[in-house]
């Protein structure tokens, strides 16, 4: 691991100015559960690490309007134990329990989960987000069993690793972002992610001196659930996850939203699935049809066609779980 | 570089003795210092520190420890290489296996995945702080009673992880235990003994 200087701002403004001083050479650290490993392995080698651990205002979970205003440094344990989350966002609790490691949920944070680097093995071996080597597309020509089946027509074929994003997107969450000079912007959570054209573009849309400060999570009387397929029972990331949220309008789905995880370089929003669910009777037949609709347009690589089937199953089971 | 203690044993030296030799050599070259003899402001007072060694204070098993580390040094390396507290094991060194588990304010964390400088201001408990052969904790004696180990290398991490789990899940079921200990691996496969030990503690039978 390269040596780096360590900055410990006490406020958001201080964090932004510490990041702005060293454009592109700083790394934001949240819980550190993955970043410390990435530093050790040389996947990231910043001149400066800016830790958000000492900024108290980023740690709280507060009631706000009809929902919650969650600090980016709120831990996953705090989130899963929050009464409002337990009552109104079962999908989030399921996602956190699925992480499978008390050592990660104890200090891992919501902001860290959202901005975490992909698990893609070519990326972790140092070939970058857009894994190319001697003109070859390593993913397309190599072992792509865990890679993208959607949004993979560009050079990026990794899958976004966030376990919370699909649930938060289904629930209509927004991200509050602060950047240069303290400028604030609020974006729909799905706008936090993109498929990079070049490795240096990163896996989020954040500028190098921007941080996610809060997540705004609307809570209401919505049915919601998440279903994930994992390769094993303990600590691991899902192969596919599906989150849904809808209102039960006399036995029919209303204001239906969904998010798919680990199937594309960004959390994937399936318009065809939302359309198939909207206004449909809440029964098993609908759940299966929406699952099939969610898989429309998939473009699997040489070794991951099985993920298309898992997508159908995960969406169907998420809807059934939300109905229960 | 902080010492990497994986795979560096040489003939003629015990593994531990070799590490101490390396440690002394590194200290002589100024890479690692164990005393706070510099007039540098403490790491808790300045906004930016490093990349060179920084004096820090850690609360480990109730004792205040002063040491000097580069910001890149993990809590695990600081414990093992500088403070000679070697119960937490370095196995995967990538936040997966759980052999390095320690308690941070009572909650289980991977010591390999936290920078030592970030552990300041928190109470750190290692396996050494949980009990002794003469006076074992409930979890430790349940491990003995249930023969919950084979080679024993994962055991310190498992005992610490189980201690945190039992405290947070005093009514855990078998499924809860299996879910809750997903952050630790035992390559000998002694899970049956470990889950039985945890269930005994939960039921008050240890």
Description of the molecule:
- The complex is a heterodimer of chains A (324) and B (206).
- With 324 residues, chain A is α+β, with helices and mostly antiparallel strands.
- Chain A has one domain (5-323): Uridine Diphospho-n-acetylenolpyruvylglucosamine Reductase, domain 3 (2-Layer Sandwich), CATH 3.30.465.10.
- Chain A contains 13 helices and 13 strands.
- Chain A has helices at 12-20, 35-40, 76-81, 83-88, 90-97, 102-105, 110-115, 121-127, 138-141, 165-170, 271-277, 284-294, 306-323; strands spanning 5-7, 26-29, 48-51, 61-64, 67-71, 132-133, 136-137, 174-178, 184-188, 211-218, 223-229, 240-249, 252-261.
- In chain A, helix 12 (284-294) packs antiparallel against helix 13 (306-323).
- The longest helix of chain A has 18 residues, at 306-323.
- The termini of chain A are far apart.
- The model of chain A has no long low-confidence stretch (mean pLDDT 97).
- Chain B is α+β, with helices and mostly antiparallel strands.
- Chain B is 31% helix and 13% strand.
- Chain B has helices at residues 15-28, 75-82, 138-145, 155-168, 174-180, 191-202; strands at residues 48-49, 54-60, 63-69, 101-104, 107-110, 123-125.
- In chain B, strand 2 and strand 3 (63-69) form a beta hairpin.
- In chain B, helix 3 (138-145) packs across helix 6.
- The model of chain B is unreliable at 1-44 (pLDDT under 50).
- Chain A binds chain B through residues 1-10, 14, 18, 32-34, 36-37, 39-41, 48-49, 51, 53, 77, 97, 100-104, 106-107, 233-235, and chain B through 1, 43, 47-52, 54, 70-72, 74, 93-96, 98, 101, 104, 107-110, 112-115, 117-118, 161, 164-165, 168, 178-183, 185.
Note the main sheet of chain B: 5 strands, mixed
H and E string of chain A: EHEHEEEHHHHHHEEHHEEEEEEHHH
**How many E strands of chain B?**
6
State the name of the first-level CATH class of chain A: Alpha Beta
Largest interface: A-B, 36 and 41 residues
End-to-end Cα distance of chain B = 44 Å
Q: Structural class, judged by helices and strands of chain B?
A: alpha+beta
Rounded to an integer, what's the Rg of chain A over CA atoms? 19 Å
């Amino acid at each position: 691991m390269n040596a780096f200087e360590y900055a410990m701002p006490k406020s958001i403004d201080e964090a932004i100015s510490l990041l702005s001083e060293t454009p592109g050479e700083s790394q934001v650290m949240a819980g550190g559960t993955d970043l410390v490993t990435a530093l050790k392995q040389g996947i990231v080698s910043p001149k400066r690490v800016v830790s958000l651990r000492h900024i108290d205002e980023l740690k709280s979970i507060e009631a706000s309007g009809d929902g919650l205003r969650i600090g980016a440094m709120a831990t996953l344990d705090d989130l899963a134990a929050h009464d409002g989350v337990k009552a109104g966002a079962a999908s989030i609790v399921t996602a956190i329990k699925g992480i499978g490691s008390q050592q990660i949920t104890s200090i891992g944070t919501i902001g860290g989960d959202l901005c975490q680097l992909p698990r893609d093995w070519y990326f972790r071996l140092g070939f970058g987000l857009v894994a190319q080597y001697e003109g070859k597309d390593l993913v397309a020509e190599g072992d792509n069993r865990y890679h993208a089946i959607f949004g993979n027509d560009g050079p990026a074929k990794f899958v976004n690793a966030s376990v919370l994003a699909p649930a938060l997107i289904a629930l209509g969450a927004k991200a509050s972002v602060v950047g240069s000079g303290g400028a604030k912007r609020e974006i729909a959570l799905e706008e936090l992610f993109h498929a990079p054209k070049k490795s240096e573009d990163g896996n989020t849309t954040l500028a190098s001196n921007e941080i996610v400060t809060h997540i705004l999570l609307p809570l209401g009387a919505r049915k919601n659930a998440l279903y994930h397929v994992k390769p094993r029972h303990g600590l691991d990331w899902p192969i596919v996850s599906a989150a849904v949220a809808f209102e039960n309008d006399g036995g029919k789905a209303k204001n239906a939203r969904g998010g798919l995880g680990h199937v594309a370089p960004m959390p994937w929003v399936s318009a065809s699935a939302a359309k198939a669910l909207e206004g449909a009777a809440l029964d098993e037949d609908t759940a299966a049809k929406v699952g099939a609709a969610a898989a429309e347009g998939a473009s699997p690589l040489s070794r991951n066609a099985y993920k298309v089937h898992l997508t159908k199953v995960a969406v169907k089971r998420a809807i059934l779980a939300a109905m229960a | 570089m902080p010492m990497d203690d994986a795979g560096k044993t040489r003939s003629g030296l015990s593994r531990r003795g070799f590490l101490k030799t390396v440690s002394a050599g590194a200290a002589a070259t100024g890479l690692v210092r164990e005393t706070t003899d510099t007039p540098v402001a403490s790491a808790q007072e300045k906004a930016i520190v490093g990349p060179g060694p920084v004096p820090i204070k850690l609360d480990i098993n109730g004792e205040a420890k002063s040491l000097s580390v580069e910001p890149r040094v993990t809590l695990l390396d600081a414990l093992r290489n500088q403070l000679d507290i070697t119960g937490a094991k370095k196995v995967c060194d990538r936040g997966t296996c759980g052999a390095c588990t320690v308690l941070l304010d009572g909650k289980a964390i991977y010591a390999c995945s936290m920078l030592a400088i970030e552990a300041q201001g928190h109470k750190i408990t290692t396996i050494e702080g949980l009990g002794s052969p003469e006076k074992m904790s409930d979890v430790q004696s349940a491990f003995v009673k249930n023969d919950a180990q084979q080679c024993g290398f994962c055991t310190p991490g498992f005992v610490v992880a189980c201690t945190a789990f039992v405290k947070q899940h005093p009514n855990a079921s078998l499924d809860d235990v299996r879910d809750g200990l997903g952050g630790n691996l035992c390559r000998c496969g002694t899970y049956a003994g470990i889950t039985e030990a945890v269930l005994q503690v939960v039921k008050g039978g240890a």
